């Protein structure tokens, strides 16, 4: 009898959790509708220079929204967009976009530049934080397959210290990169799947 009751409780919890998650994703979809113009309906960016959110962890997306809202990261559009979001809305949007896989882009990397980019990535130990395959973890973004223009822009922003919401890690690494290194890393990272 106790085993049957225990199974019923566990099953009930799973059903409620599943329904709650589905409702949160639906709420995220509603809130994220305005985001689709730049980031794509499924988080796969449709505008060059804007990041794809699909394939990111919900935690990374949430932290970036929070940083925009609280002024630790600045972008004219994103700061305005995040300023009115509640914690729940940010969580729902983050979970919504994180639920989609990243789709391959049409970017064709220059093989020679990508090879130099891989050598620079190995030299600077990028995978210590971004993991093998540049798949990311927790608050560390997945950069594999990200939009080329966005990768290059963010590396330049870290180097110029106009983006500093990274606890200093990327800002420090970016100081060691030349403009050619940044371009090569963009080719390498954007070519990864």
Provide structural commentary.
This protein has 193 residues and is an all-alpha fold. The protein has two domains: 2-98, Cytochrome Bc1 Complex, Chain D, domain 2, CATH 1.10.760.10; 111-191, Cytochrome c-like domain (Cytochrome Bc1 Complex, Chain D, domain 2, Orthogonal Bundle). The protein is 61% helix and 0% strand. The chain is built from ten helices and no strands. It has helices at 2-32, 36-39, 58-70, 76-83, 87-98, 111-123, 127-130, 148-160, 169-174, 179-191. Helix 1 packs across helix 5 (87-98) and helix 6 packs across helix 10. The longest helix is centred in the first third of the chain and has 31 residues, at 2-32. The radius of gyration is 19 Å and the shape is globular. Mean pLDDT is 88; it is low at 8-22.
Give a topology summary.
Elements: H1 2-32, H2 36-39, H3 58-70, H4 76-83, H5 87-98, H6 111-123, H7 127-130, H8 148-160, H9 169-174, H10 179-191
- What do we call the CATH homologous superfamily of the largest domain? Cytochrome c-like domain
Helix-strand string: HHHHHHHHHH
Return Rg in Å. 19 Å
CATH architecture of the largest domain: Orthogonal Bundle
The average pLDDT is 88
């Amino acid at each position: 009898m106790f085993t049957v009751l225990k199974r019923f409780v566990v099953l009930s919890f799973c059903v409620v959790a599943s329904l709650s998650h589905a409702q949160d994703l639906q709420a995220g979809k509603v809130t994220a509708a305005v985001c689709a113009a730049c980031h794509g309906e499924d988080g796969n960016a449709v505008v060059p220079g804007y990041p794809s959110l699909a394939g990111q962890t919900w935690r990374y997306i949430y932290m970036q929204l929070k940083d925009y809202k609280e002024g630790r990261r600045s972008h004219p559009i994103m700061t305005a967009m995040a300023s009115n979001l509640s914690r729940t809305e940010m969580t729902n949007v983050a979970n919504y976009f994180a639920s989609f896989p990243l789709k391959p882009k049409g970017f064709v990397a220059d093989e020679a530049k990508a090879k130099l980019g891989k050598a620079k990535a190995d030299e600077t130990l990028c995978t210590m934080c971004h993991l093998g395959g540049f798949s990311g973890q927790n608050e560390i973004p997945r950069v594999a397959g990200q939009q080329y223009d966005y990768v290059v822009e963010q590396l330049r922003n870290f180097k110029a210290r106009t983006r500093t919401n990274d606890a200093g890690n990327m800002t420090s690494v970016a100081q060691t990169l030349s403009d050619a290194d940044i371009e090569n890393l963009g080719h390498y990272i954007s070519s990864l799947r």
